[in-house]
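Q&A log
Question type: sequence-to-structure
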Amino acid sequence: MIALATLLGSNLVVVTWLYVTAGPSANALLSLGRLTGLYGALLLVFQLLLIARVPWLDRRLGPGVLTSLHRWNGVALVWLLVAHAVFVVAGLLDRMTPWTLALGVTGVLRAFAALVLIIGVGVVSARWARRKLAYETWHFLHLYAYMAVVLAFSHQIAVGQSFNDGIARFYWWTIWGLALGAVVGFRVLVPLWRNWKHQLKVEAVVPESEDVVSLYVTGRRLDELPVRAGQFFLWRFLVPGRWWKANPFSLSVAPNGFYLRLTAKALGDGSAGLRQLKVGARVFVEGPYGAFTASRQRHPGVLLIAGGVGVTPIRALLEELNGDVVMLYRVNRLEDAVLLNELLDVAYQRGAEVRLLCGPPDAANSNGLLLGPRNLDALVPDARDRDVFLCGPPPMVRAVLESLKELDVPPQQVHTERFSLAS
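Response status: OK
Response body:
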């Protein structure tokens, strides 16, 4: 995080210096318009870096942090670009009409189209809109942001005063080139290479319950796939009606060099259709992604807390974590405890302890709610001295985080992750 802040801050200084050395515009409004436009262009480059899925960033910060930074950077970007448009139009109105500005100045229509697209992507990314959209729809609409990037860059080249200077041209071409290169490299070329190398396909489809299914995926040289327990892939199944859909699923078994396994509950169109996949179906993956791995373990003791189908990365982690491991598995009904027998077997082999907490969301005992602070303290009295890995439905995760806070578990010892990515 410090490295990212330093990177952004240093580039803000460079952009400000380039703005000053380029000299003032015709009036104060145009000067403000230029400055907000330059800052907006820099944040657009930074946005590309955040969505490029650079492994170095992903392994250290995790998708949750990167997605949060992407969201806040996007909000600032929209406001800067709106301010840029307002200041520039206001600064030019004394010499031309809006119609003349739109048709007579090179690149203005491209800039307007880019602004509309960026605002549109920002609107569909808002929480209230995101809840109403299927993951596939949201992902598809996000792709329009790349068209906005192309339009915005071409506008900057066409009319940007900072491009009149050789040093400024070199700077902007360099940072745009690096950001776009990272996107193409890590989101296109690396996935293409890995999928050609590993040739993944569905080996078996195994129902775990009435609404949960596990897929076993095999391929070539899987021992060379750089994946760890707790990470996830974006999965595409290359069959009619599904090839264009990418869904994030974590591994439910630690990588073993022989097969990959994902376990998913039927919550949307993407996960509901997994049961109908045929053996032999080709699979295309992007990833692995995520920092929810054993590399975060700093203490000899570990507490794993899983809720519902959030057990899948926890099940994989149970195989890799070292030391004294206690796992709490929270479900509403006994039949919801998928993979329980596997968990007990792995726990027995590794000397870990698994405790099943079963009951409706408001279920309680003499110590209060099952995942409340008093009951957690009773079940794991030394939780403050353990690393905590937490995965489950968002309401459960929020409740457990509050309980851990009340128990004075240091925040740096609590590890949770959002198993999806900004697009």
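Response note: The chain has three domains: 2-185, 199-289, 296-416.
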